[in-house]
Amino acid sequence: MVTDGGPARLRTALAGRGIELGLPRWLAAPLAWIIVAITSVRLGVNLFNYEPVRHVGKIAPRPILFIHGDLDHYCSDFDALFAAAGTPKELWRLPDVGHTKASEVYPEEFLRRVLDFFERYLPHEPYIRGDC
């Protein structure tokens, strides 16, 4: 599995969107929590139980490549997600990249890293890179 900018929690992603829209940080987080809580009541399901951070560890032993830009407002709690994942897991962390922008800022390296990851972990015949 490859994830680029996957949030650890729904409320974190919502808070990130609020910040992107101009909400102050001090307001975005509690407002996001309220939105998730109210939506949970309206849907009759506890959305807090479906946070990726609670389930990412169950993916193991299947490998995960985490791609994370440190400027990503949608995934400010990324370290919790990475820590909760089982092994094998890999991390490509970019200090100067925002949400899902790794492929735009570093297109050649993005392609190389993703293809190398799949070549290492998928059982298949090697292919010639020009074939994809």
Description of the molecule:
- With 132 residues, the chain is of the alpha/beta class.
- 45% of the residues lie in helices and 11% in strands.
- The protein has a three-stranded parallel sheet, with no helix packed on it.
- The longest helix has 19 residues, at 25-43.
Strand content: 5-15%
Number of domains: 1
Largest sheet: 3 strands, parallel
Q: pLDDT average, as an integer?
A: 91
Distance between the termini: 18 Å
Strands, count: 3
Coarse morphology: globular
Segments where pLDDT lies below 50 for 5+ residues? none
Which range best describes the helical content: under 10%, 10-25%, 25-40%, 40-55%, 55-70% or over 70%?
40-55%
Q: How many helices does DSSP assign?
A: 6
String of helices and strands: EHHHEHEHH
Report the structural category: alpha/beta
Radius of gyration: 17 Å
Strand order of the biggest β-sheet: 1-2-3
Q: Which features does this protein show?
A:
3 strands, 6 helices, 132 residues, alpha/beta, three-stranded parallel β-sheet
Question: What's the helix and strand layout?
Answer:
Layout: E1 2-4, H1 10-20, H2 25-43, H3 52-55, E2 64-69, H4 78-84, E3 89-94, H5 102-105, H6 107-121
Parallel strand pairs: 1-2, 2-3
Helix pairs in contact: 1-2
Question: In short, what is this structure?
Answer:
The chain is α/β, with parallel strands linked by helices and 132 residues long.
